[in-house]
Design brief:
Structural class of chain A: mainly alpha
CATH class of the largest domain in chain C: Alpha Beta
Strand content of chain A: under 5%
Distance between the termini of chain C: 43 Å
Order of helices and strands of chain A: HHHHHHHHHHHHHHHH
Strand content of chain C: 15-25%
Largest sheet of chain A: none
Bound molecules: adenosine-5'-triphosphate, magnesium ion
CATH superfamily of the largest domain in chain C: P-loop containing nucleotide triphosphate hydrolases
Number of strands of chain A: 0
Chains: A mainly alpha, B mainly alpha, C alpha/beta, D alpha/beta
Largest interface: A-B, 54 and 55 residues
Distance between the termini of chain A: 25 Å
Radius of gyration of chain A: 22 Å
Number of domains of chain C: 4
Oligomer: heterotetramer
Shape of chain A: globular
Structural class of chain C: alpha/beta
Chain lengths: 386, 322, 533, 310
């Protein structure tokens, strides 16, 4: 039963929450003796004030879209996949193998090939915990945490002992051949006569990420599989009644989730660094959890939450470049944003609801019988996935 | 592997298990009351910093400990506010707390000490020193039990003994007191507690506060007992391992002890590749060694531990009216 | 009675949940030493009103007087202090606690449990003796039947020395024998001067035990009358706002071929306990086979294995072709493909996804049907149209397919499930507890639908703990006890008494049997009924 | 105005980056100049920082760490008028980049000599941070120094882990140190960033000797740190900033013992630990290495170490 109109729920609540987070961040900046207004201006200008800034913002956002979607899909089946980090690492390995050892004639084919490998490797890395959960009852939260560590060790081994070009100090793979270079936004937009910064790393993976949002949306709300995933997530006894196999749903969902996380590698590994480095994922898998939670597990929400985090990353980088503010400030700001928009959102929602109710009361007394229709599929549950 | 090596290994196990155990019991209180807590890591980190910072400033480790606990409690209060009062998402709140602690500790450390997110090294009374139990030296030469007593049982900081005592205490509180009964009930069915005339909110806050207290001790142990100062990110994922141990332990105090000791043992084994080599006969490659604790966990989990059923009302805010 | 102050007096109570006005300006007086009934449709606001009295919800406006004294009841603690006890419609028990622990929860005697537990154990024994409320104090709640659970709830209130006892739909889950016993206890309590408020959908119970009765409709109190001065039809009309038929109108059945043939069906549960111990039964086209029995005697398992989501062994044929009882071909979807429809016992747990909207629930289990899909994607327009159509025909209120299932009242939720399953035109309909907790208006409708399906020549297997319902709907009645069929009777040649004895596992229904014997048998059956609906 | 780009460890890592920071600070204090700086947070920022500083007119731009090699090779050609310096890289071919690398294995060899002489148990330890070739390179030189001095000695080497957390886990560093002590080690060499703090602390607590790395860490536990393997990143950075726009680019500089780019620290905190004999042995070894009489094998040469098995 909705008290508030949808626009208030979707726009007003997050906006006010964001403002509160910004306010508190400003206080923190003040406390360490810096000028908050200058800092915010710098962040906004640096992240959104130029195609260059956008280029980086969107690059980070692309990573977060993939990992956010990965977590979101699993949430719909009530599976809490904390393993996005490890799955994305493995995805990177898949991309590197595809890019280095197959002679691709054209980047487009390479993108498809590397994407398949990335998805496959990520999927495998998620499928094992999925299988252990479905068949052995091992809690997917623990196993995915463990698999993050195992992935790190595996990657370390591969980069230090196997894929590192001989004599190179850098625990990284060789550079990918020119043929697999993915077009950047600059190269994509130039033919259209749009000037986009040449140096920003945003690349065609952004479009893949956007497409992934649409595909995930279709999957979850338009296909039978998505219907079954959601049903299973909401009620396991009911799913059983309907003949939905728990093992199948758990496995399929984890595989899709892992594939999405793995796909991130086409952005950071293939699109940006064009070689596989240690720690290529840089915690994007964990940011994905926050992104999915904040986006309420809906692709559109994930998209915007990823943008927000992309903005924070790039704005934070600018702050670090031009001021002596320690980089940890950005971490604090991220924390406040997550806290206010994600966990304390009811602090804003409750008074707002009361406000809206005050304007509604004079209407005819309602019974459950004439209550508001529920919002569309976007209101899917995201809370508590365990 | 000879006896003394075994003792040394177990000694290391105890040290490594202690912060895990404290954090695990913290999680146990919170989750038994129906509040999931993935912010153990952050609380531990904050406490590690503040206890080292205050110990360094005042020269007293006890003031440090109090400050560590206070900081951890403050983060607990944030978690409580978000997940109990405002019925927010407990997982998000935990994630936020982890970020908050990671950033804030370094920010404040830099502001206070200007040593790049560290505290100065702690000396003398600003540190928890190992305690030598009575007769430890005298007994050292007694065969078998001598080394056991002297090496393994004696010679830890007071917080280690506190952590181990916390296990029976936790068990006693949960299963033998009124408070424990109510706390367990509120994690299973808050409505039952509510209709029995007991405040759900009050109980959950109490549980979250106990979690804060225990995480505070865990953090202080890291920076003032195991180490002599704070280094950024020094909790190094132990909060998550504690969480894994909690699930592993099926939310039970004694199991929590065994689970964290097991994790501690894996960690200790990782530092002794020579022992592993002597036991299995082949040299274990470095990266495999690093992955070993995690691999073993997965294997044990899949092989020997059945399904863990969390407290039924866990993770759900208590909502009476929507 | 005019000179004594009412035990309870509510004045002008109003309560809104967000935009829903659950209680509107309600006033009511209940005299001490009486049983006061409250009836009303699903969602009328009965539970809300009582929850306010018990301090579970806070009223937006209004005053509460206990024994003439104005009393603030901000929380349940205050209510308990004022001598009020309540047994909720949905029990408030901690499933993995023992009976004793549940009883002392919140009413412990000190900081330590031991003394509280031993004290409670003693008073439990004396309460049990006084009122005939026998329970095993050390049993886990999840291991005892609902009837037992309800006893625990009543004991909880008595242990807290409640003078005022509120019971919200207490008989919904009880067998007739259990219900009778409950009423005996309530009578006892009344004679001791305690005041009782009883919410129920069953007019028979109102007539049988209450002194006065109030009727609620859409959040308002529409009438309060002396029970002696009213009649069931009048109450029903007050409740629903129109005349209601209180009997099922049906022609004699014309059974056809055997549709379902069950031979030697066995089911072993996860703990290795044999739940079904060789069931043989047949259901023919055009008849209703009623399956009576105390909850937990295997009816649920029977429905589950026939519905395809529990494994079993034995020989089961449908329309003459064998039915897989385990493996890949034994799940909900393959059953549906074979023409089996299933209305599960617990609509909220199994039959519906409470967070899905009505139209989504409308295809639950049938979501692979061609007509609900176009290619890879589901055809939402077709599903919605179908849902609207079904909701209109089954008179689901409100007829809004975009409303989440949880926002419909129990009766309307049941209609959604029923519409989904019946409209499939199945050969066999498995139906469990079709009217549990459903109000009179909706019961009438649901019964009509079941009979209509029978008259179309479909086979129906009906499971219900309501003997009255079994007797009213069935053509033949089988009674289950402890995983076996105790006997089978033609519906028009048996009665509640005979069935009641069979339900207690007593086959020689000719002789007299002591109450104790029946109870002992029931306790035995209920005791290992860890699986409850 | 010069700019300085720190590696992921951050400028206060108590070793490598901090040395660079100290060099830059010294320059700033002496000349009154100012420099721009940034600590890396992510891989993608490397190229970003290079470009942003180049565009803002910073010159020279000094960057730390081998991981900058790759971004530098794409960015430097785009800004031919800007001069870059990169520390720990020696394999690029760029006209406007000065590449400075250090012969860490040589410095490590020397501390290995000292460790071997200081050890009474003939067992010494090495604690590395994250398992990467650079750290193996340190350990390898160390082991060679130990074995050359005392062929009967045993070198126990452990790495802290495989994730970046391995740089900041003093608790684990501490535990590894204890494990090495249990195996008989009485001197440990830490090349592990923040983890090393725990190694040095535990060594001091347990009464054995430790060896610091990169910066002079002797003062951390006076009388308990045998020495520190100095890697004069500070000098390299200071020199580069001093040179300013006149920085000589296009060349590859390897700073070894001869150039005093690496060395051992002897100061008032450890002078009592360093015997004359030890000093003499170190001096001799240094001279022999400079003269080419002793060849310390680099781990990079064929990704393996003659004296230690990783
Ligand atoms: N906790 C709640 N939050 C929001 N709305 C509620 C809540 N409980 C009840 N309602 C609303 O209040 C109205 C009255 O509900 P209530 O449970 O009191 O009805 P009832 O008469 O007990 O129905 P039933 O016969 O089904 O038990 C319902 O229509 C429902 O919409
Ligand atoms: N917490 C709640 N929030 C919103 N609506 C609620 C809530 N609790 C109950 N309702 C609604 O109140 C109405 C009746 O509530 P109640 O829970 O008493 O009955 P029910 O369990 O749905 O049905 P039945 O009485 O048949 O068991 C239903 O419409 C139900 O969906
Ligand atoms: Mg009700
Ligand atoms: Mg109801």
């Amino acid at each position: 039963m909705d008290v508030m109109p949808k626009w208030a729920e979707v726009i007003l609540v997050p906006l006010i929450s964001l403002l509160l987070a910004a306010l508190l961040s400003a206080l923190v900046i003040l406390a360490i003796g810096e000028d908050p207004i200058a800092a915010v201006t710098l962040m906004v200008k640096g992240a959104l004030g130029s195609t260059y800034g956008w280029g980086y913002t969107l690059y980070y956002a692309t990573n977060f879209i993939f990992t956010g979607l990965a977590v979101a899909v699993a949430f719909h089946a009530r599976l809490f996949n904390i393993g996005g980090e490890g799955q994305a690492m493995l995805g990177g390995l898949g991309v590197a193998l595809a890019a280095l050892y197959i002679p691709w004639p054209h980047w487009s084919l390479a993108l498809i090939g590397a994407g398949v490998m990335a998805g496959l490797f990520g999927a495998v890395w998620a499928a094992i915990p999925g299988w252990l959960q479905a068949k052995r009852g091992s809690h997917v939260v623990i196993t995915t945490i463990m698999f993050n560590f195992i992935a790190a060790a595996l990657l370390n081994y591969v980069l230090v002992n196997v894929m590192r070009p001989p004599g190179s100090m850098d625990p990284a793979s060789a550079r990918f051949p020119e043929a697999v270079h993915l077009p950047t936004l600059h190269e994509l937009l130039a033919p259209l006569g749009i000037a986009f910064s040449k140096s920003a790393p945003t690349n065609i993976s952004l479009l893949v990420a956007a497409a992934a949002c649409i595909v995930v949306w279709l999957l979850i709300w338009r296909t039978r599989l998505g219907y079954e995933i959601r049903a299973y997530g909401h009620s396991q006894p009911a799913a059983k009644y309907a003949g939905i196999s728990p093992v199948r749903i758990t496995m399929v969902t984890m595989i899709i989730s892992g594939a999405l996380a793995g796909l991130m590698a086409i952005n950071n590994v293939m699109g940006e660094s064009e070689r596989l480095v240690l720690n290529a994922t840089e915690g994007a898998g964990f940011i994905g959890i926050a992104v999915a939670l904040m986006g309420r597990s809906h692709p559109v929400g994930v998209f915007f939450a990823a943008l927000l985090f992309g903005f924070l990353y790039q704005g934070g980088a600018e702050l670090a470049l031009w001021t002596s503010i320690p980089r940890e400030l950005i971490v604090v700001i991220q924390a406040l944003v997550i806290l206010f928009t994600g966990a304390l959102d009811n602090m804003v929602r409750m008074p707002l609801e009361r406000l809206f109710l005050m304007f509604r009361r004079p209407g005819p007394p309602a019974n459950s019988a004439d209550s508001e229709p529920k919002p569309g599929p976007c209101s899917a549950q995201s809370e508590s996935a365990e | 592997m000879d006896y003394i090596t075994l003792i040394q290994l177990l000694d290391s196990t105890v040290r490594l298990a202690t912060p895990l155990l404290l954090a695990c019991l913290a999680g146990l209180f919170s989750e038994r009351a129906g509040v999931f807590d993935i912010g153990l890591e952050g609380k531990m980190l904050a406490a590690a910093f503040f206890s080292a910072a205050l110990a360094s400033i005042t020269g007293s480790v006890w003031i440090g400990l109090a400050a560590g606990i206070a900081s951890s409690l403050a983060l607990s209060a944030v978690h409580g506010l978000a997940s109990i009062t405002f019925r927010g998402n407990q997982l998000i709140s935990g994630v936020a707390i982890n970020f908050l602690a990671a950033g804030m500790t370094v920010l404040i450390a830099q502001d206070w000490f200007a040593q790049g997110g560290r505290t100065p090294s702690l000396f003398g009374g600003a540190r928890f020193e190992p305690i030598t139990l009575p007769f430890a030296d005298a007994m050292a030469d007694v065969p078998i039990i001598g080394p056991l007593y002297e090496e393994l049982i004696s010679g830890h900081s007071i917080l280690v003994y506190a952590a181990f005592l916390a296990v029976p205490l936790t068990w006693w509180i949960l299963f033998r007191t009124r408070f424990g009964l109510r706390l367990r009930a509120v994690g299973e069915n808050p409505a039952a507690v509510d209709t029995a005339g007991v405040s759900v909110v009050g109980l959950r806050y109490a549980a979250v506060a106990i979690a804060g207290l225990l995480c505070g001790v865990a953090g202080a142990y890291l920076s003032t007992a195991l180490q002599a100062g704070f280094v950024k990110d020094m909790s190094a994922g132990r909060g998550f391992i504690a969480l894994a141990a909690l699930i592993f332990a099926k939310w039970r105090p004694w199991y929590a002890l065994w689970a964290t000791l097991l994790f501690g043992l894996f960690g200790a084994l990782e530092t002794r590749p020579d022992v592993i080599q002597s036991v299995i006969g082949i040299k274990v490659q470095g990266q495999i060694l690093s992955a070993l604790p995690y691999l073993m966990t997965v294997v044990i989990l899949a092989g020997f531990v059945g399904k863990a059923i969390p407290p039924r009302a866990g993770g759900e805010p208590y909502v009476k009216e929507r | 009675m005019t000179d004594t102050a009412p035990a309870i007096e509510l004045k002008g109570i109003s309560k809104a949940f967000g935009p829903v006005q659950a209680n509107k300006d309600i006033s009511i007086r209940v005299m001490p030493g009486t049983i006061h009934g409250i009836i009303g449709e699903n969602g009328a606001g009965k539970s809300t009103l009582m929850s306010i009295l018990y301090g579970f919800y806070k009223a937006d406006a209004g005053e509460i007087f206990i024994s003439g004294k104005k009393t603030d009841i901000p929380d349940s603690q205050a209510a308990i202090a004022a001598g009020i006890g309540m047994v909720f419609q949905h029990f408030k028990l901690v499933e993995n606690f023992t009976v004793l622990e549940n009883i002392i929860l919140g009413a412990e005697d000190g900081r330590l449990l031991k003394p509280s537990l031993s004290k409670a154990r003693k008073s439990l024994i004396s309460l049990a003796e006084d009122y005939g409320l026998n329970v095993d104090p050390d049993a886990l709640i999840q291991d005892i039947g609902v009837g037992m659970q309800q006893r625990v709830e009543i004991l909880k209130a008595l242990y807290r020395q409640a003078d005022i006892l509120i019971l919200d739909e207490p008989t919904g889950v009880l067998t007739p024998a259990e219900a009778d016993q409950l009423f005996r206890i309530l009578g006892r309590l009344r004679s001791e001067g305690k005041t009782i408020i009883l919410i129920t959908h069953k007019l028979r119970e109102i007539m049988e035990i209450t002194d006065t009765v109030s009727v609620m409709r859409r959040g308002k109190m529409t009438a309060t009358v002396k029970t002696a001065e009213t009649s069931p039809p009048e109450l029903a009309e007050l409740m629903v706002g129109r005349k209601v038929l209180l009997r099922v109108n049906k022609k004699p059945a014309t059974p056809g071929d055997v549709i379902l043939d069950v031979k030697g069906l066995r089911v072993v549960d996860g703990k290795g306990v044999e739940r079904l111990r060789g069931i043989d039964l047949q259901v023919c086209a055009g008849e209703v086979l009623g399956l009576a029995g105390v909850a937990g005697n295997g009816q649920s398992e029977l429905l589950e294995v026939l519905g395809g989501y529990a494994d079993g062994t034995g020989n089961v044929t449908l329309n003459g072709t064998p039915l897989d009882l385990s493996g890949k071909k034994s799940d909900g979807q393959s059953r549906r493909a074979r023409g089996v429809a299933h209305v599960p016992e617990d609509r909220q747990r199994e039959g519906l996804i409470m967070d899905f909207q009505a139209w989504e629930n409308n295809v639950f289990g049938y979501h692979h049907d061609d007509r609900f899909n176009s290619g890879l994607l589901m055809d939402h327009a077709a599903i919605r149209a179908d849902a609207e159509d079904k909701m209109a025909r089954f008179d689901v209120r409100p007829p809004d397919p975009t409303l989440a299932a949880k926002n419909f009242s129990g009766g309307n939720q049941q209609k959604i499930v029923l519409a989904r399953e019946i409209e499939r035109n199945p050969d066999l309909l498995l139906i469990g507890q079709p009217t549990r907790g459903v109000d009179i208006g909706a019961i009438e409708f649901i019964h009509e639908q079941i009979i209509a399906l029978r008259d179309q020549g479909k086979a129906i297997l009906l499971v219900s703990v309501e003997l009255e319902e079994i007797l009213a709907l069935s053509d033949r009645i089988a009674v289950m006890f402890d995983g076996q069929i105790m006997g089978e009777r033609a519906a028009d040649q048996t009665d509640e008494k005979e069935l009641g004895l069979l339900m207690a596992g007593i086959t020689d229904t000719e002789n007299e049997h002591s109450v104790a014997e029946v109870e002992a048998n029931l306790a035995r059956a209920g005791g290992d009924a860890s699986k409850e609906v | 105005e010069p700019a300085l780009i720190f590696d992921l460890g951050g400028k206060f890592d108590k070793s490598f980056n901090e040395a660079a920071f100290n060099g830059a600070t010294r320059w700033a204090e002496e000349t009154g100049g100012k420099f721009a700086e940034i600590e890396m947070q992510s891989e993608a920022q490397r190229e970003q920082a290079l470009r942003r500083f180049a565009e803002s007119g910073a010159n020279p731009i000094i960057t730390m760490g081998f991981a900058m090699a790759d971004p530098l090779s794409t960015v430097a050609p785009d800004y031919p008028d800007t001069k870059f310096a990169v520390v720990d890289v020696n394999w690029l071919d760029l006209p406007n980049v000065r590449q400075v690398s250090f012969a860490e294995h040589e410095g490590s060899y020397l501390v290995g000599v000292m460790a071997a002489m200081a050890s009474k148990s003939n067992t010494v330890g090495f604690v590395g941070g994250m398992d990467v070739p650079l750290i193996r390179h340190f350990g390898c030189g160390y082991a060679q120094g130990v074995m050359a001095t005392n062929p009967d000695a045993k070198v126990i080497a452990n790495m802290t882990g495989t994730t970046p957390a391995a740089w900041n886990d003093p608790v684990k560093g501490s535990e590894i140190t204890k494990a090495q002590i249990n195996q008989g080690a009485d001197v440990v060499y830490a090349a592990a960033g923040g983890t090393g703090v725990g190694v040095l602390q535990t060594a001091a607590d347990e009464g054995i000797l430790s060896i610091g790395v990169d910066s002079n860490q002797n003062h951390l536990h006076p009388g308990k740190v045998l020495t520190s393997m100095l890697k004069r990143v500070d000098v390299a950075v200071y020199d580069a900033m001093m040179a300013g726009e006149d920085l000589e680019v296009g060349e590859v500089v390897t700073l070894g013992l001869a150039e005093e780019g690496v060395g051992v620290a002897v100061d008032e905190h450890n002078k009592d630990l360093v015997t004359e004999e030890m000093q003499a042995a170190v001096d001799e070894a240094r001279q022999k290495i400079i003269d080419g009489e002793i060849k310390v094998v680099s781990y990079y040469e064929n990704d393996s170490c003659p004296a230690l098995d990783f």
